[in-house]
Amino acid sequence: MRFIIVTGMSGAGKSTALKILEDTGYYCVDNLPVELVPKLGELLLLPGSSISRIALGLDIRSGHSFEKLQKSLEQLDEMKISYEILFLEASDETLIKRYKETRRSHPLAGNGRVDQGITEERKRLAFLKRKADYLIDTSRLLTRELREEMHKIFIENKEYKNLYITILSFGFKYGLPSDADLVFDVRFLPNPYYIDDLRAKSGNDPEVRDYVMDNEKAVIFLDKLTDMVRFLIPNYVQEGKTQLVIAVGCTGGKHRSVTLANALYQVLAEEERDYGIKIEHRDIEKDAVTKAK
């Protein structure tokens, strides 16, 4: 039997996570009163039970009874019922944006501001976050990417280190990415923009990629960058970091940064790994839009 408790910040994707688990064969129960959690455990122990995989969604909507969850979990431990906790997290900025887009009010905000409700919720969920077996930050994840990460954990049973890496290309003239943890400047490389045949293309095109990488400095830079990132990843995992954004920038975010970001992503994605990874090109289309105006 596999018993998953899905919880986390309101707006971080609990309902989506439950739907994903349901699609993979889990029997899902959402927002069961916490006092009944041990009773659910007892049902699972009954001889002849046909349920082998169950996911239970719990969140702050349970009100004051949520404070009794610690006791309910202790009862499961006493009954020797094995369970795993999946905690879904997101940044305050992301949660506020999601609430504004859906025009919903935070369950703890009352007549106050959303950010006040988020702060209070973080305090109440702190014990559960510390106890979590899996922590997924959905701030930058698409539903497809969340599905992939959960599939690794709950279907492929791979070891999971709670870290998700985003490799992001950008253009300095459009500003630094506000959420970048590491920023690298590749403007020292020859710029394909000044080659007529390459100007309209991007780092996703083989002609631009070959032009950029046919330079000893680019090859050395990629080698040193990869070596440093490989060193940093396990240390960030040990620190408990859940999101790592590696930003690679050039002037317009279309040629050099895209090429090097793609190259770094390809190296890391092909390695044996226990973290999630994706690639984004923030400004790749902005030159064309600006000129069209």
TrEMBL record:
InterPro entries membership: RapZ-like (IPR005337), RapZ-like_N (IPR053930), RapZ_C (IPR053931)
Residue positions binding ATP: 8-15
Domain of life assignment: Bacteria
Domain spans labelled RapZ C-terminal: 164-285
Keywords recorded for this protein, A-Z: ATP-binding, GTP-binding, Nucleotide-binding
Domain RapZ-like N-terminal per the UniProt entry, residue ranges: 1-157
Chain sites annotated for binding GTP: 59-62
Name the UniProt record assigns to this protein: Nucleotide-binding protein
Organism: Claveliimonas bilis
